[in-house]
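Input record, target 12 of the design panel.
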């Protein structure tokens, strides 16, 4: 959905194969069908797989599916996350705190771990973490304190990944819509 779907279309238009994911199979099927119907494929292929980014084994299975389908991974974008709830920090229900932190921060950590391990094995690749929502700390978006905190955490995570990277053939960065 949203930014992820737009990225998938853009990659397909440029001739890149694409793997999309979601927690629900129906969402995966819908996204793959929409990508095929978009006419953006230019010979590239789109496939999908369910994945709960809060479960590292699921993220590893997503990587493994991409490699089995396409042979290697050029780009890995940690785009999963939620920003659907707008509450003051002190009013955000506990279940939503878990949802935001697990999906937005743990998802990026697990995705980065899996991608960096895979990129080191294949010798190349590009990892991008999706930011947004006041992650730079320069402006505050009302009622988005927990979401923005997770995205600020993703920003710091990416800085550590850059500092730890020893391979010039592996690119690490952020996307901030």
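The sequence produced for target 12 reads:
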């Amino acid at each position: 959905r949203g930014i992820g779907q737009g990225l998938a279309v853009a990659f397909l238009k440029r001739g890149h194969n694409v793997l999309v994911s979601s927690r629900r199979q129906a969402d995966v099927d819908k996204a793959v069908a929409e990508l095929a119907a978009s006419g953006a494929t230019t010979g590239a292929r789109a496939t999908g797989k369910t994945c709960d980014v809060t479960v590292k084994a699921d993220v590893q299975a997503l990587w493994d599916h991409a490699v089995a389908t396409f042979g290697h991974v050029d780009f890995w974008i940690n785009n999963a996350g939620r920003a659907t709830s707008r509450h003051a920090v002190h009013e955000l229900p506990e279940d939503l705190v878990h949802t935001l932190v697990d999906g937005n921060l743990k998802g990026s950590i697990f995705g980065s771990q899996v991608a960096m391990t895979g990129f080191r094995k294949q010798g190349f690749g590009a990892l991008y973490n999706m930011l947004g929502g006041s992650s730079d700390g320069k402006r505050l978006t009302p009622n988005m304190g927990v979401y923005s905190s997770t995205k600020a955490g993703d920003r710091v995570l990416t800085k550590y990944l850059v500092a730890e990277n020893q391979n010039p053939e592996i690119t690490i960065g952020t996307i901030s819509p």
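The mean pLDDT is 92.
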